[in-house]
Amino acid sequence: MIKLAIDKPAIDKLIKTSIIVLIIAILPITPIYLSNASSQTIRVIVGIDPNELTLHRNSLRLFGYIASEIPELGAVVMEMPIYVVDNVKKIPYVKYVEIDYEVKIYGEVQWNIEMINATYVWNSYSSYGDAVYGYGATIRVAVVDTGIDYKHKDLQNAVEWCVVSLNNGKTFYRGYSLDKCKDLNGHGTHVAGIIAARLNGFGVAGAAPKTILYAVRVLSASGSGYVSDVAKGIIEATKGPDNQPGTDDDADVISMSLGGPDSQTLYNAVSYAYNYSVTLVAAAGNEGASTPSCPACYSEVIAVGAIDQSYNAPNWSNRKPDVVAPGVDILSTWPKNRYAYASGTSMAC
């Protein structure tokens, strides 16, 4: 007969632990952030391992309200009391916590198209067919901005697909209902016209007038939005209509005429797109700063500064861009079949 040695203290400890776990499991838990409901809240992005998002989602809810998620980046957009932010930063599985900063816009053939020699390419290389006009339906440019007036007569059949990510993802859509991406500001439509206004004998012409556009609306009617929405827009543009990155319908180019401070989440989104061979272009910024704002600040992004008709850089164009292009008094499309002049590195981008 075999006698087993029984460690009574160890068994007692195991029983007590089991009872505590059971009690925690069956009792309602009051989230930490509700214990002081009057505390001032802040909007942050919590970064964790994308593979552990499901595992840790419920525990994060103890610290605040989850507004949205970007699963591909392991980014969780949350609203939480300021006083719990430092506690969240100390959680072992949390990689970073950052403020969900606000970003904002930078505010037929015209001089800008002539200056970049687009018309020379159209006239001299016609033997290459649609390649000189933007490759027709095979090249897709995602305009990450305030939306696009797809009904504009100079943008007929230019916009093919739509993504909306506003208010930290609380308003989200992806699909072919282009009206959901209508431009209530004007900035995105202006940028879209510079890229792809059609060669149709009237109005203006874009640099690549046969290119297909994806309208990615991440900025509100006021022209502002949040880092989390821009990051989400980049991810969705990279995946394209079939929701799979690395396939034929992905955006070939992502144009971002917007800017703000450095952000780990924004950089992760840029890296995600870059790793799928997407070309990223962004406005350098209009603050007259010594370096480009972000996302133009990242090495994976082509930073575009502005010049005028005399090839001079205006004092408001941020310095040290990768390239420069016309960005002063640029005429382009505007909502409701109108046209407008605008200046900024957005117009150069």
UniProtKB/TrEMBL annotation:
Pfam families for the chain: Peptidase_S8
Superkingdom classification of source: Archaea
GO biological process, one term: proteolysis
TM stretches of this protein: 14-34
Example of a GO MF term: metal ion binding
Keywords: Hydrolase, Membrane, Metal-binding, Protease, Serine protease, Transmembrane, Transmembrane helix
Record InterPro entries: Peptidase_S8/S53_dom (IPR000209), Peptidase_S8/S53_dom_sf (IPR036852), Peptidase_S8_Asp-AS (IPR023827), Peptidase_S8_His-AS (IPR022398), Peptidase_S8_subtilisin-like (IPR050131), Peptidase_S8_subtilisin-rel (IPR015500), S8pro/Inhibitor_I9_sf (IPR037045), Subtilisin_Carlsberg-like (IPR034202)
UniProt cross-references to PANTHER family, sorted A to Z: CEREVISIN-RELATED, PEPTIDASE S8
Protein family according to the UniProt entry: Belongs to the peptidase S8 family.
Listed name of the protein: Peptidase S8
Protein species of origin: Ignisphaera aggregans
